[in-house]
Target: Phosphoribosylaminoimidazole-succinocarboxamide synthase
Amino acid sequence: MEKLYTGKTKDVYQLENGNVLLKFKDDCTGKDGKFDPGENSVGLTIEGIGRENLKTSVHYFELLKAAGVKTHYVSADVENATMEVLPATVFGHGLEVICRLVATGSFIRRYGEYMEDGTRIEGGYVETTFKDDAKGDPLVTKDALAVLGVMTPEMYDSMKEQTLAITKVVADDLAKKGMDLYDIKFEFGYDKNGEVILIDEIASGNMRVYKDGKIVDPMDLTKMILA
Amino acid sequence: MEKLYTGKTKDVYQLENGNVLLKFKDDCTGKDGKFDPGENSVGLTIEGIGRENLKTSVHYFELLKAAGVKTHYVSADVENATMEVLPATVFGHGLEVICRLVATGSFIRRYGEYMEDGTRIEGGYVETTFKDDAKGDPLVTKDALAVLGVMTPEMYDSMKEQTLAITKVVADDLAKKGMDLYDIKFEFGYDKNGEVILIDEIASGNMRVYKDGKIVDPMDLTKMILA
Model:
């Protein structure tokens, strides 16, 4: 298999059938030996975390498939920590799509003058940021994405609609387990027909979840999702 | 006349006919005695600049009236440096609407990875930021403005459409004078029927203008606009 890309937490290989294989690694983003999904460099290795993240992703990709939401997910081999996915092109040099059900974090840092931390956002709010550490992951609007040639307004509308639907599937699953999803981030790409689909993974490190009024640590969250 | 508000560069009075009177002052925003339209505190006083800014605003408000764009402008008394305007409510605690015809400044600081400084943006690009020095005037999307209860999506669409039309009127006027409008910022409000209209002023300090490849100083720009 030809290796296409060596990532921080995943390696990417070309499959002969035209699909792509993601190999989940035990390397985690973090700082000073402490796991932090918001960090952009590998900070530590946790034995078996690659498989745990893969199992979490498979759990949600299967729920999405059942709900009729098409994603890049094809199949997984948990033993070998690999997931087969459809080929897709990422938007720009990395774009994060955030869906917020409860206003907190950077949203409140920006707009705290207008909304109290912890306010529930009816129906959810979707925003996009460029992955760019040096620039502090700048917010980018639908109109700017079009001007910059990153995606068409129609692609944005499809991505936003899918984000709201996918977030609802994840939030409903967490609610059944007694947990409250505050916000979640995704990555999208587009296939050879220009169709926008969810790519990458859906793991504990990509969401902020509360239980009984307290934030749930990503490691505990994985266990509770897979319980 | 009842004084409604004491501003940095304008005072605001209630008129008996229901309209509002803006009194343009000679105080300018700036720092260390140097005029800087981007600063938020009064830095110096320039004899007669209130009247010059009023004349510039009248010039553009009259052009807009002729082009069929309704604004808050009713009439002006240049001698006394006052402008009569329709009453309007501002959005939130201050919202700036920026229209960019050439990508530069904060747009490039945010998105320089995707576009070269000085790239012309066909048709123009509109974005909104909250006036909030401590937070660095954060960008805010159409969806966030709705979630925060600042304006409805329909109000945003009207504001964006007007911004593009108004920018074209100003850019065409500057082009006739041999100048090139890069970007311009506006303030909008809404009247008692919820109709969105341009408020405040249209002065040299609100736009970035180039001539023969060099940026034009706001004081020189005023003279060239009024020449």
About this structure: Chain B touches chain A through 28 residues (CB under 8 Å).
